[in-house]
Design a protein that fits this description.
The protein has about 750 residues and is α/β, with parallel strands linked by helices. About 40% of the residues lie in helices and about 15% in strands. A hairpin with a 2-residue loop joins β15 and β16. The longest helix is centred in the first third of the chain and has 22 residues.
Length: about 750
């Protein structure tokens, strides 16, 4: 690395997606056999070509006095029927013996046939009671097409006015009126008057603000022991936990957090929320370590001891008590069901045949690519790990499956990821092979859906899998038909999803399917540096072409000056990467060298202007956030009465005037969470001294890996940087996916 004298992450909220549907059962394979009690010689109506032939038995001797020619014709006809019936029934009951004795319905049908042929009126054949009904196979529930999350409907003006009047009475900001009416729905003003702490359901409202609103409305009746307050605080804490990535919380952790919020009886508050259906409680058995049975947490042991459930040798297996919101609980259960269905729906015969069909493609590949092709051929779910260069391996798998005539698709999380994926396919790839996850689920990209609402795919490969939150993953799993294959590919060392859950990490830990580790390293000094960070080592690497440059700084002001200098002058001159292709990355939005300060300085240098369109000018680089956790880089084109016109990777986007403030930021500088899944030719990472608490190994790994050709590090973090790489892993998240999946799919290792 060369040195020239010469970039605190706020975690985004969970993605606003609809809860997935319930799991889908397998398709019915056909009607059951006829019920017992029917004549042994009667054919199954399901096996007949049409109703006219149903039930026609073998011929019997002709009646005395019939003409020879008529008898011969009847015998010939009956023989033909006998042969047709025997062919249909051979696989089930064997052929019907010629001349066999008939009875019941078969004999009556024979008499009716004879009567018709002789010109007589046939007897009523079906006048007898109906035979025992068939055993009916229930029609499977059809999947409804998954849809991208839709924003809430605009509340009526009258409802907003009513809420605004109530907020004014309680001393709350009038700006909360519209979101409160949208969140609480019809009768929002009445709901708030009956339970003022419902204000906590509005994004951005804190408990102390809701307490003040409640005191203004309730007066002396307001108190910290109010059941409504405890219930609202419980839900609010679970929502905050989801923002931090948890799908549930341990009951003791939740109780402790309630105690810090002045809830007199945390247990009662949790029970009230559960009783009202605002939260759900789970009891998951603890895993047993190899050395012996798991030791229950102290809180669990005390509860069991009080119940007398751990006496002597009959002690019950300890459980972990978790509390979560229904939205994420259902998503996690739906994801486990969907993945288990994919794992179990591929039969051994199908796997064996696929292995034979795919073997030529695997033999033509090498190393981990061949391993991935063989694993995907024989299994419904496969995990693939690797960095940027390893994307070529799932791309090769998609191409091999397409040559076999399978319906294939590969999805990335961003437009930039889709572009990089398409580069591996080349110009001859069918349209719609490379898509984005959001476009695939919404139906704007990809193969579309079949009549059952499932994606018309035999193989789906999802790249950047660590960015899958539990709700998006559940929608993908439930959208795949039975027998389809799902391959999740990604770099396990990068930052986890913005939304709740740690899907890819949980699946890797659960070991319920094959895991293929790529042996294709990222090239060059940047790749070598990032690989070492993933292993917990911050190594000095040789960079003869100034691929990696460290720029030491003393304070935030110098950090901003150096970052602007690098983007505007040094990198374009020394590396040949223009300013518009260089991305600045820093730990947080606030602070002396956060994204706000850096973007202001970069705009002044690179695109000065008055910001006449809500702070933006044509040519400004922006970060458009259409939903929490999703960042789309772009550029301002113009503004008019319709709103702010953006160009986001070639896609025109119009943002209405009232949405600009909350969805559009300047984008010369981003946080690492915003930059994950994206890459630029050059990256400038700013590490100010006041943001060292935000540093962790996944953060550094993600930030340093965003530059394809060049990385500059504006370094003011002193020893905090190597300490973060060596000692600060990812923050743990509380999830249930491993437990749910292991209950349905046994571990493979």
């Amino acid at each position: 690395m060369s040195t020239e004298p010469a970039a605190a992450e706020g975690h985004p909220g969970p993605a606003d997606t609809d809860a997935p549907r319930a799991g889908q059962g397998a398709e019915a394979t056909g009607p059951e056999e006829a019920a017992a009690g029917e004549g042994a010689g009667a054919p199954d109506p399901a096996d007949t070509d049409d109703g006219a032939d149903a039930g026609a038995p073998a011929a019997e001797p002709t009646a005395e006095g019939e003409g020879v020619s008529e008898a011969a014709a009847e015998i010939a006809a009956q023989r033909e029927l006998q042969e047709r019936i025997a062919q249909r029934k051979a696989a089930k009951e064997g052929p019907i013996a010629a001349g066999g004795k008939l009875s019941g319905t078969a004999a009556d049908l024979l008499a009716a046939v004879r009567a018709v042929e002789s010109g007589e009126r046939p007897a009523a054949v079906f006048s007898e009671p109906a035979p025992a009904p068939r055993k009916v196979v229930a029609e499977p529930v059809r999947r409804a097409p998954a849809a991208a999350p839709a924003g809430p409907a605009e509340p009526a003006a009258e409802a907003v006015d009513a809420v605004r009047a109530l907020l004014a009475e309680g001393g709350a900001p009038a700006s909360l009126a519209a979101p409160a009416a949208a969140t609480l729905g019809e009768g929002a003003d009445s709901a708030l008057r009956d339970d003022p702490w419902q204000l906590l359901r509005i994004p951005g409202v804190r408990p102390e603000q809701a307490d003040g609103f409640a005191r203004a409305l309730l007066g002396a009746e307001c108190g910290p022991d109010d059941e409504r307050r405890g219930r609202a605080l419980t839900v609010w804490l679970l929502e905050q936990a989801a923002v931090a990535g948890h799908t549930a919380l341990d009951a003791p952790v939740l109780a402790e957090a309630l105690g810090k919020r002045a809830a007199p009886d945390p247990g009662e508050a949790v029970q009230s929320a559960i009783a009202e259906g605002d939260a759900l409680v789970f009891q998951d058995a603890l895993e047993e370590p190899p050395g012996g049975p798991a030791r229950a947490p102290e809180s669990t042991q005390e509860t069991a001891a009080q119940d007398g459930s751990q006496d002597g040798d009959e002690a019950e297996r300890p459980v972990r008590v978790l509390v979560g919101l229904e939205r994420y609980a259902l998503a996690e259960e739906s994801l486990a069901d969907g993945l288990a269905r994919l794992v179990n729906s591929l039969s051994k015969d199908d796997s064996s045949q696929a292995l034979a069909d795919w073997e030529p493609a695997a033999a033509a590949a090498a190393g981990s690519t061949a391993e991935l092709i063989r694993a995907a051929a024989g299994h419904g779910l496969v995990l693939h790990t690797g960095a940027e260069a390893a994307r070529a391996e799932p791309a090769a798998l998609v191409q091999a499956a397409a040559r076999l005539g399978l319906r294939v698709c590969a999805a990335a999380h961003s437009v930039d990821g889709r572009r990089r994926l398409a580069e591996h396919f080349g110009p001859g790839a069918p349209e719609g092979t490379a898509v984005t996850v959001s476009g695939l689920l919404s139906g704007t990209e990809g193969p579309g859906r079949d009549r059952d609402g499932a994606l018309a795919l035999d193989l789906l490969v999802v790249l950047d899998a660590p960015q899958l939150d539990v709700e998006t993953a559940a929608m993908l799993a439930e959208s795949l038909p039975d027998g389809a294959r799902l391959v999740l590919s990604g770099d396990p060392s990068v930052l986890w999803s913005a939304g709740p859950g740690r899907v890819f990490a949980d699946l890797l830990a659960a070991r319920v399917c094959p895991q293929i580790a790529s042996r294709t390293p990222d090239p060059g000094p940047v790749g070598e540096l990032v690989s070492g960070i993933g292993a917990g080592e911050l190594n000095e690497v040789a960079a003869p072409g100034k691929e990696v440059v460290i720029v030491p700084v003393r304070d935030a002001a110098e950090a901003i000056h150096r970052a602007v200098q690098l983007v505007a002058d040094s990198v374009p001159r020394a590396i040949g990467v223009p300013s518009e292709q260089t991305q600045v990355i820093t730990p947080g939005h606030g602070g002396a060298a956060g994204t706000r300060a850096l973007n202001a300085a970069l705009k002044e240098r690179l695109n000065p202007g008055p910001g006449r369109f809500g702070g933006f000018d044509p040519g400004d680089r922006i970060a458009y956030v259409p939903a929490p956790g999703r960042t789309v880089p772009g550029r301002v084109v113009r503004a008019d009465a319709d709103g702010l016109h953006l160009d986001c990777a070639g896609t025109p986007v119009v943002v209405s005037q009232d949405a600009v403030e909350r969805t559009v930021r300047h984008g010369w500088a981003l946080t690492a969470h915003q930059a994950v899944g994206l890459r630029w030719p050059a990256a400038v990472v700013v590490l100010p001294g006041d943001a060292t608490q935000a540093l962790s190994r996944p953060w550094v790994y993600t930030a340093f890996g965003r530059g394809e050709r060049h990385l500059s590090v504006v370094h003011g973090a002193d020893t905090a940087l190597p300490r973060a790489v060596a000692e600060v892993p990812a923050k743990p998240r509380t999830t249930r996916l491993q437990t749910l999946l292991r209950a349905q799919v046994p571990p493979t290792q």
